[in-house]
Amino acid sequence: RRALHDFNVWRQELKSVEELSAFRMYERNLFTDVGGDPVEVAEITASAFRVTRVPAVLGRFLVESDEQVGAPPVMVIGYDVWQTRFGGDRNVVGRTARLGNVHMTVVGVMPRGFAFPVYHEVWTPLRLHSTVYGPAEGPEIRVFGRLADGITLDEAQSELNHLGRRAAADYPATHEHLRPRVLPYAESIVTLS
Fold first, then answer.
1. Are 27 and 41 in contact (CB under 8 A)?
2. How many CA atoms, within 13 angstroms, populate the side-chain half-sphere of residue 147?
3. DSSP states of 82-113 as a string?
4. pLDDT tens per residue, range 43-75
5. Which end of the chain is more exposed for a tag (fewer CB within 10 A), N or C?
């Protein structure tokens, strides 16, 4: 699960998967004008929203520039959070709220029922850079993507096997016994929910 280094390699080299994405989960208190309560947060790559192909109902979803170190802290909120914490204010985009200890600007609202990747209510940019972490270092992340048109799971697995063997040869201390697997999304999240 400490696959940030691998994720960046896969993102550059996998041709059988488009829009490879990653996330990690946490819970934080969201403080608005109506008080503070915990919300489920997905710290996620901007590409995840292209994987889901679900547009925001207000504003925008995350974009790659949001992931850059030094970029303004932003968040996308779910429909229920918009209704309960922001009173359904149609001018919510551009408002600031505190998530944990960080003041963040709302840049978008996702539609009712959108809770991707598992049951999340707020999305913030995943700002992790592989140059800081070596193989099998860094925080735990989950990796997912969408198969490229016409590609089967077996074909994607074959390509990933090749990259896994190369990683095992290049990094035997950390990767010798690791075998990356391609799973249908629903199967991969069973242990998360």
1. yes
2. 16
3. HHHHSTT-TT-TT-EEEETTEEEEEEEEPPTT
4. 999 999 999 999 999 999 999 999 998 999 999
5. C
